[in-house]
Amino acid sequence: MKDTLHFIVSAIVDNQEAVSIDEHEEDGVVVLTIHVDPADMGKIIGKEGKVIRSIRNIMKVKAMKHNIRISVSLADNEKKKKSQYQPLSMKITIITLFPEMFSGAFSHSIVKNAQEKNLIIISYVDLRQFGLGQHQTVDDTPYGGGIGMILRVDVVKKAIDAARDPQYTNERVILLGASGKKYSQRIAEKYVSTYQHLIFICGHYEGFDERVKKYVDEEISLGDFILTGGEIPTMAIVDSITRLIPGVFKEGVTTHESFTHKDDKGYLLEYPQYTKPQDFEGDKVPDVLLSGNHKKIESWRNAMARKKTDTLRPDLHNKS
Prior knowledge:
The protein is an alpha/beta fold. Helices cover 30% and strands 20% of the residues. The protein contains nine helices and 13 strands.
């Protein structure tokens, strides 16, 4: 089984020498873990996760012929290749039932560039790998009755333990949940300035066994609304963190963004921005922006930022 998987993966990736397959057994299930060069991770996952799903299906069919129960997952290759990265690269590990969901979001634009520059390392822990029994069960019915299924504390705890990395001394385990603290730019800044390794746990189904919270450092919510799982909030948070990492943008790019620029009342929204055409259907760019007087432009922008904040987000006043 191990050799077959190695052959399939090697046929897909560019760096065949980096391919390795770990094999061990848990509760009667043969667990095969794929290690590849981080640059090849997108090829293994494929568009919308189609490649890794196909690999798993092929291996499960082969396993059934030999009456073997099998699990195939992607590994955290960065632990083996740590020397390739800068010592202070931020690492993000995402515990999820659906690692393939992240391939699109993190394979483009700023997050992709940050990974290619080795400014951030993103790895995944497949929660299903720690499921119980033949079907790798990760949830169960709630005590006391009720609708839906609850993620088991024993399964989640194993995943958290697997996600921890001894090479990072400053880790934080974050649970995505509706009862968590509302996420903000201040929290994003704290994560970047304080921690080297962030572990995000994405919920699904009806939620977590309450005892899971004993093993996390904090619970975070994007707002007062419900989503199917924690994957989409995690994508948003990782994006907000990545853009604050030194070296991702040129110096000064994030200085005057919304929730970053501040006056004596508190944080401000960003001032209005304009570009060509100068006159669109009679709606003209403010004259001050065309004046070339940088002092007047700065004064106008500060005034507009205050006005915009007063009108749209007065709640930002006096926030620290």
